[in-house]
Amino acid sequence: MLDNDKIKLTNYNHSSRDKKNNKFKWIIFVVLLVLATNALTAFLVTNALPKETADSKGSAYSGKHISIFNSYDEKDIEQFKKLFIVKDKLEKYYNGKIDENLLVEAAIKGMTNSLNDPYTVFMNKKEFEYLTTETEGSYVGLGIQVGVVDNQIVIIAPFEDSPAKKAGIQSGDVIKKVNGIEVTGKDLDKAVSMMKGKKGEKVNITIYRKDKGDMDLSIVRDEIKLNTVKAEMINDKIGYLQIFMFDENTGANVKKALDKLHSEGMKSLILDLRQNPGGLVSQCVDVASNFIPKGDIVVYTVDKYNHKKEYKSHGGKYTDLPIVILTDEGTASSSEILSGALRDYKRATLVGTKTFGKGVVQSVFYRRIDGFGDGTALKVTVSNYYTPSGDNLNKKGIKPDVEVKYPEELYNKDYNREIDPQFKKALEIANDKLNKK
């Protein structure tokens, strides 16, 4: 889940002096590394900076950033002295070409990689561009959402009608190689960037599937159009609403769909969140607000300083509507928030299998004021999220009220609602709810 309001870009600020210092440490270290690429390295180490210094691309860091650096004590700077020593030795003795931009990027990525958190990464321009396309309606790639389990890159869900879906990719598959290069959980963003690219090009991936072993697949990239909402009436009283992910338009589209179903006679709803990998938390809250009374907590987060942030319902017209939610192992992040909130308030019955279990929040620093502004960015895990009852779902997921497994043999066939045991059970429960009203 990314804690943001429009696209996956947020500003994460703390009010106390200590928290500001922590933020500035990251800013200044990036400044240090960039400035280290010119002849002022020795000057920097001695803490004698000019008021304004331009990087290699000509964009100047403001005097504000430099004055923050000057407030650093020598002990803080000494911790990173070895970086400059190594750089100096490489420039003096390495018998080959040195790309200073790559040198700086590798040093920064080394820091984030050392945390062993696949969701905390430094992104170069290309990687950051890929991230920002995920909630803008379309992009070119394979059409999958991935997460990390036990340091493995795991398929959360393939998108409907995507190249990955057509190639037989399933939730739970583990990506072991992309174009012949081995990848693990710490290479999550690298693997994602390798799978995206030009339309019509092939991507070779090796996946591992339980009970089948390794499988080599060649998949052609295509434009992935993110149609996130599908709605229809099952019969004259029961509506069906499927949400594929939470992009910047999902909240508004769900409200329109609900109003249309209501006008067609909906008295009960089946909400299908299977294979929904999540997305924008703001849109998740907008969707939940249709079903949860105004002012009630939908989700809350707690950061390392024990600061709590609550996301509350805006209120809606369907707070008494009987709901059945379909979940599976591809139900992740924001879709787990929605499922957990409706479960906690006893607003819905969950049917299917246990959800993925991603209960951490990331923020993305990308603006000039954050020390960036050059097209690169830093994505950081900043907090855990909790359902209204205080349940953190990270690495454990949500168990459904009624467990129904989807048969393995049906994954390789065209979807048919008539033989879907999870849907059939949800329909049965939806009818029971109507009869009890």
UniProtKB/TrEMBL annotation:
One of its GO terms (molecular function) is serine-type endopeptidase activity. The chain crosses the membrane at residues 26-45. The keyword Protease applies. Its EC number is 3.4.21.102. PROSITE patterns: PDZ. Signal peptide: none annotated. SUPFAM superfamilies: ClpP/crotonase, PDZ domain-like. Keywords: Hydrolase, Membrane, Protease, Serine protease, Transmembrane, Transmembrane helix. Gene3D superfamilies: 2-enoyl-CoA Hydratase, Chain A, domain 1 (3.90.226.10), 2.30.42.10, 3.30.750.44. Residues 131-196 form the PDZ domain. Belongs to the peptidase S41A family. This is Carboxy-terminal processing protease CtpA. It comes from Clostridium tepidiprofundi DSM 19306.
